[in-house]
Design a protein that fits this description.
The protein is α+β, with helices and mostly antiparallel strands. It is built from nine helices and ten strands. The strands form four sheets. A three-stranded antiparallel β-sheet has the order 1-3-2.
């Protein structure tokens, strides 16, 4: 693994990424090896540290924990982060941890419960890969968005990489943030995202808004986050779509 002292971010992941990720600037895929050039990849890259907790510790201590009338799942996730998370400048470790988080959240056993027969195991693979890259995005506690990459805008990024039409791209985005509408998946998401130092928050109200998501620290100023995202997202979405292959 490399750190931000190096020119690029390189990580070996358990799953081979689709080579079409190279359609987006700054991404190189060589089987299981993923390399990012931050200067080319990010729209904005101001923060070079992230909060991480050990995934194995999350699995053994947090995932089995049960909510009670006295202790909500958000409360013990926050307590876990305070006790076990630490700051890192190793962006590759962020990607490696994120892949573990999303391999858990987008595992095949969820397919039967989605109520979306169009979504297949291959679509979950797309979600795992896009969400892994999303983990490098960052919003500060005051609501300022410090890191923005193409995968902030899920439907746009996945349409470019995986040749999805607008309808399927939107449906994939619904699965991504569908934890808001399924309590079991929401609880899983809160626990799992503790490994990435926060909770998954969305700027969108529905698929067409395409305001995406980021793992944000508990206590983040959401009004400032919402306003800044609303001001910049239109231009950035257009810049993502500009990398769609030209159809003959």
């Amino acid at each position: 693994m490399t750190t931000l002292a190096d020119t690029t971010i390189t990580v070996e992941l358990p799953e081979a990424f689709d080579p079409r990720w190279s359609r987006l600037p700054g991404i190189t895929v060589d089987g299981h090896r993923l390399t990012l050039d931050p200067d080319a990849y990010f729209f904005r890259f101001e923060a070079h540290s992230w909060l991480l907790a050990d995934w194995n510790l999350v699995k053994t201590e947090l995932l089995p924990a049960q909510e009670t009338a006295e202790s909500a799942v958000e409360q013990f996730a926050l307590e876990f982060i305070k006790a076990h998370a630490a700051s890192t400048t190793d962006a590759a470790q962020v990607l490696a941890t994120a892949w573990q988080v999303y391999a858990y959240l987008f595992r095949d056993e969820h397919l039967d419960g989605l109520g979306l027969p169009q979504i297949t195991a291959d679509h979950l693979r797309m979600l795992r890969q896009a969400a892994t890259l999303m983990a490098l995005n960052k919003v500060e506690s005051d609501g300022h968005i410090s890191n923005i990459g193409p995968c902030w805008f899920f439907p746009a990024a996945t349409s470019v990489v995986f040749d999805l039409d607008e309808e399927m791209g939107g449906m994939l985005d619904e699965v991504y943030h569908g934890g808001w509408f399924n309590e079991h998946r929401r609880i899983e998401s809160i626990k799992a995202h503790a490994a990435l130092g926060g909770r998954l928050v969305h700027g969108c109200q529905s698929v067409p808004e395409q305001s995406g998501g980021v793992v944000a620290p508990y206590g983040t100023a959401m009004p400032a986050f919402r306003d800044e995202l609303a001001a910049l997202k239109g231009d950035l979405i257009d810049r993502v779509y500009a990398h769609r292959p030209i159809q003959n």
